[in-house]
């Protein structure tokens, strides 16, 4: 029996439940184990609690043997390598950003000065670039409580990751899905990181069957942008990778919080075989290359000014 560690929110248990079901379908018994994190006990924004707050407790449970597997939203993981863990990336959910607005409205239809909820600097900056008139309000809590602020009339709209909405069964609540080139998502958005202890050979073998090599290639490229910029998961940094026709195309950006300035770089590499180790190294290299170009263009100064 494998014990799968997860946070207790509806979204976290739902996505961990998908992993559990896939493991069981492969012939191994598994069950969920709820791990309480400091972030679950605080109403403060992530920026104040600290980066990695939702992942460190799960990793502690993993490395102390309380659980055998931990399931994270990959975008929440620190970019530094963790040699004690083996990470597998299952098939990725849609990584686009979603608007949930009253009366079925899209962003362009929101009235002047509309109250839009989000606390992510990356989203704030891009919203202000598209609609400088918006009144951006802090947003905290689980998916249900965030949507409730629109339902109650407190906010006119909120912006969330569509992946979370879809996994939790709320995909139809989105009133607009943004083109990821025009409104860029976080690096690794929509991807799960399923990890076990690297010295646990039996569990490593079980998890390897869940690996989606295309998703892993995309995530590797996107996260190497973040790592090279030495930016945390709450920084105003975005990245979006696509794989099609034997080619990986990566777009990466750094944004001024007030929407006044955007630095964007893009590039492509050949990836004839997504299973090939060399393809993954080229994907990492592309992420590092675009991050270096962003730094040359002034990304460090832009991030430091936030």
TrEMBL record:
One of its GO terms (molecular function) is hydroxymethylbilane synthase activity. Its EC number is 2.5.1.61. Coiled coil: none annotated. Residues 2-202 form the Porphobilinogen deaminase N-terminal domain. InterPro entries: HemC (IPR000860), Porphobilin_deaminase_cofac_BS (IPR022419), Porphobilin_deaminase_N (IPR022417), Porphobilinogen_deaminase_C (IPR022418), Porphobilinogen_deaminase_C_sf (IPR036803). Binds 1 dipyrromethane group covalently. One of its GO terms (cellular component) is cytoplasm. The keyword rRNA-binding does not apply. It catalyses: 4 porphobilinogen + H2O = hydroxymethylbilane + 4 NH4(+). Keywords: Porphyrin biosynthesis, Transferase. PANTHER family: PORPHOBILINOGEN DEAMINASE (PTHR11557). Tetrapolymerization of the monopyrrole PBG into the hydroxymethylbilane pre-uroporphyrinogen in several discrete steps. The porphobilinogen subunits are added to the dipyrromethane group. Monomer. This is Porphobilinogen deaminase. It comes from Corynebacterium mycetoides. The lineage of its organism: Bacteria, Bacillati, Actinomycetota, Actinomycetes, Mycobacteriales. The gene is hemC.
């Amino acid at each position: 029996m494998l014990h799968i560690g997860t946070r207790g929110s509806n979204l976290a248990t739902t996505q961990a439940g998908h992993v559990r079901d896939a493991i069981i379908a492969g012939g191994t018994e598994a069950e969920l184990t709820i791990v309480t994190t400091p972030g679950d006990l605080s109403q403060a924004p992530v920026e104040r609690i600290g980066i990695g707050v939702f992942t460190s407790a799960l990793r502690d449970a993993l490395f102390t043997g309380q659980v055998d597997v931990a399931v994270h939203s990959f975008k929440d993981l620190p970019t530094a390598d963790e040699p004690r863990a083996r990470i597998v990336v299952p098939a990725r959910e849609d990584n686009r950003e979603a608007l949930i607005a009253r009366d079925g409205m899209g962003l362009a239809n929101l009235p002047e000065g509309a109250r839009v909820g989000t606390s992510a600097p990356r989203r704030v900056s891009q919203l202000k670039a598209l609609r400088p008139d918006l009144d951006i309000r802090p947003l905290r809590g689980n998916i249900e409580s965030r949507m409730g602020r629109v339902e109650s009339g407190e906010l006119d709209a909120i912006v969330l990751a569509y992946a979370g909405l879809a996994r939790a069964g709320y995909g139809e609540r989105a009133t607009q899905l943004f083109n990821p080139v025009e409104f860029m998502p976080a690096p690794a958005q929509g991807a799960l990181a399923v990890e076990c202890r690297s010295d646990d050979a039996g569990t490593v073998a079980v998890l390897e069957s869940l690996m989606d090599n295309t998703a892993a290639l995309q995530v590797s490229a996107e996260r190497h942008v973040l790592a090279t910029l030495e930016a945390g998961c709450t920084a105003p940094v975005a990245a979006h990778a696509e794989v099609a026709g034997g080619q990986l195309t990566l777009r990466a950006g750094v944004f001024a919080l007030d929407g006044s300035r955007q630095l964007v770089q893009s590039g492509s590499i050949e990836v004839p075989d997504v299973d090939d180790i060399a393809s993954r190294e080229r994907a990492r290299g592309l992420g590092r290359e675009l991050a270096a170009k962003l730094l040359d263009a002034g990304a460090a100064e832009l991030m430091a000014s936030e």
